[in-house]
Amino acid sequence: MSWLLNLYETYESNADQVGKIEFKHNGNEFTLLPISHTTQTAHIEVQITEDGEFHSASIVDGADAITVIPCTEDSASRSGTKIAPYPLHDKLSYVAGDFASYGGQIKKEEPFSYYIKQLEEWAMSPYAIPKVKSIYTYLKKGKLISDLVNEGILYLDENGKLIKKWDKKYEAVYGAKPKIFSVVSGEQESAFVRFTVYSHTNVLTNVWKDNEMYDSFISYYNGKLCDNDFCYVTGRHTPITEKHANKIRNSGDKAKLISANDKGGFTFRGRFTDSKQVATISYEVSQKAHNALKWLINRQGKIIDNRVFLVWGNNDVNVPNTNDDTYDLYSLDFLRETPEKTERISYTNKEFANEFEKAIEGYRSNLSIESNVNIMILDSATTGRMAVLYYRNLNAEEYLKRLVNWHSTCVWRHTYRKDREGKRVTFIGTPATKDIAFAAYGPTANDKVVKGLMERILPCVIDQREIPEDITKSAFYRASNPVGIERWEWEKTLSIACALINKKEGYTVSLDKENNDRDYLFGRLLAIADVLERSALGPDENRSTNAIRFMNSFSKHPERTWKTIQASLQPYQMRLGKKGQYFSMLIDEVASRINLEDFNNKPLSGKYLLGFYSQRHELYQKHEKNTNEGENQE
After folding, report:
1. Which residues in the chain land under pLDDT 70?
2. Which residues contact 148 (CB under 8 A, 6 or more apart)?
3. Cα 485 to Cα 470, 479, 534, 609, distances in angstroms
4. What is residue 269's predicted lDDT score, i.e. its pLDDT?
5. Does 283 share its domain with 359?
6. What is the DSSP letter of 510?
7. Strand duo 44-49 + 192-198: pairing
8. Structural domains in the chain (count)
9. pLDDT in tens, 508-539
10. Residues 1, 126 within the same domain
């Protein structure tokens, strides 16, 4: 119940955001829903005058189609042939009194009679506002489809019935295919209709964005709730519910987190005769917790193959995410430092940790002592059931400590990111978990593989566990085989593999010239050979060097492969002249550090990649420095 309580408290802390429209990166709208409300995708918008007369109608398409609508417990969970009308906006079969007259299929009873009776109760209640009464006054006349046909929204066949499916024979009558057949996936009669009120004298807020409408229905519906019982979340005796919300990940999501409607199956496992014997949850808690969860997912959740990764704070929902890389965290508005800061610091883990700690200090100082951070993973195995795969609630201070530890230990130098202007940037830090997945399994890895790895990495961040060995090995093997992948992809894989390996080894990103580890020294030799040949080839030659071509073989049989690589270097050493002598002396110096008994064909560990990267980076840095000094002298 802790996740429900924390979601409920999050809703209470952000009550001022209820009904405020926000936008996703793709332009779609979302909001923190009021209780007793849900969302639906509307296809037709009907405007009613304040006197209850039809004014106009239009087809709704695109991002504007998502509509906040009032709902009851029954309508929110209706399915199949069950008649359970929404209180205001609904499908044609519910809201059109002349539905049957135009060929609409009605099973058993007419849905409109249930709909209009329910709407009448609201419109006649003391909580109703003029907009509700205007819409009710129009709809009780039962001529919605007639008006929509006259408006050119709906279309009839030769028998005066709604066209079931568009056919080319109708082009002779109506011309090109009408928009309604493109917007609605099924037949015309399945179109969802939303209503608003039009005024000749005043500018009125659309019904589905009107706070007064929200409050009107909430007050009306709360007065109808009377099944009081003990709420296991809040500990209070309040109206409870057994019907909980769906549409958690999107407006078409049917999976529920809480459900107990399978009395003939294995829901109760023979322990209980009624779902209330398990636990009871109040209607208010269920509504607010689920609405807060929907809002958070839209706002900051990451969805991979329908698996939701979500991090939020009870008081301040803006929390550094466990899945982001260090560059993204530096870019957050509530962090004071910038990505460029990482280029000016030393490449030691301790100093980087201090810099990252300073960057996050501004956020920490604004937190209250009671601030908590929630980490949650959600997924569904079927279309109707969703599960919490992972949930942790931590004090914000402790969470930030663990985040700093992760970004200070699984660290390396990366060059694969781009800024907002599309320019490539370099940053020191930790890769994003999604990039770790691509480094381990390739950029074509499907979403099922990616989401599985992201879930496995999460305990490494939150619980400070070791990175699973198979993930590190997979990235190591791909980084050791540069010939099999494109250059840019290999460079990205190499730096990420170094970060994963360094999480365990704790090496510095800068070259450690005093490190006499056998594997580290072999990596340095390979880097020198690579830079030597690349320097001799010149900027116009793009082929791989012998060091890169033999890298996979070198990682498995270093002593034998090194003989081949060194023999291939002789013509390039001669071409470089004095510069070649420098590389030769460096090779001799590094090789002399390897003990004689260690110069063998024992396969290399991941440490050789660390030595390779650091040595290669230092050589290129020296080359750039010498080039710049030469240009300045000129």
Report:
1. 1, 80, 107-108, 261-271, 332-370, 623-634
2. 44, 46, 57, 154
3. 20, 9, 19, 17
4. 60
5. no
6. S
7. parallel
8. 4
9. 889 999 999 999 999 999 999 999 999 998 77
10. no
Evaluate whether residue 384 is within a structural domain. Answer: no
Question: How distant, in Å, are the alpha carbons of 70, 136, 158, 318 from that of 245?
Answer: 13, 27, 42, 25
Query: Residue 245: which of 78, 1, 463, 17 has the closest Cα?
Result: 78
Integer Cα distance of 490 and 496 in angstroms: 10
Tens of pLDDT along 323-350? 999 888 877 654 544 344 444 333 445 5
Residue that finishes a domain, picked among 248, 267, 297: 297
Q: pLDDT at position 250, please? A: 86
CA–CA dist 621, 186 (Å, integer): 63
Helix (H) or strand (E) holding 409: helix 396-409
The sign of the dihedral angle between the CA atoms of 225, 226, 227, 231 is positive
Q: Report which of 351, 358, 313 is spatially closest to residue 336, judged by C-alpha positions.
A: 358
Report the alpha-carbon distance of residue 600 to residue 595 in Å, rounded. Answer: 10
Does residue 80 fall inside a structural domain?
yes
Is 170 within the bounds of a domain?
yes
How far apart are alpha carbons 231 and 211 in whole angstroms? 28
Same domain, 287 and 354: no
pLDDT, residue 438, reads: 96
Q: Of the residues 268, 297, 326, which one is the last residue of a structural domain?
A: 297
DSSP H helical ranges for 463-596: 469-479, 487-505, 518-537, 546-549, 551-556, 558-576, 578-592
Residues 253 and 150 reside in one and the same domain: no
Question: Rounded to an integer, what distance in angstroms lies between the CA atom of residue 563 and that of residue 291?
Answer: 66
- Domain of 611 in residue numbering reads as 514-634
Does 400 lie in the same domain as 462? yes
Residues 213 and 125 in one domain: yes
Sign of the alpha-carbon torsion through 124, 129, 87, 49: positive
Q: Is 250 found in the same domain as 320? A: no
The answer to whether position 302 is within a domain reads no
Quote helix, strand, coil % in the chain, to nearest 5. Answer: 50, 15, 40
pTM summary value: 0.85
Does residue 126 sit in the same domain as residue 209?
yes
Q: Please, is 470 exposed, middle or buried when counting C-beta atoms within 10 Å of its C-beta (0-12, 13-18, 19+)? A: exposed
The closest of 461, 451, 467, 462 to 502, measured between CA atoms, is 467
Q: Residues 6 or more apart from 263 whose CB is under 8 A from it?
A: none
Q: Which residues contact 84 (CB under 8 A, 6 or more apart)?
A: 72, 74, 75, 77, 78, 114
- Backbone Cα Rg of the chain: 32
Residue with tokens 């116009």: 540
| Integer Cα distance of 558 and 242 in angstroms | 66
Which letter does DSSP use for residue 193 in this model?
A: E
477: Cβ contacts below 8 Å, ≥ 6 apart: none
* Sheet hosting strand 307-313, strand order edge to edge: 302-304, 307-313, 372-379, 387-395
Q: Which two tokens stand for residue 582?
A: 């420098």
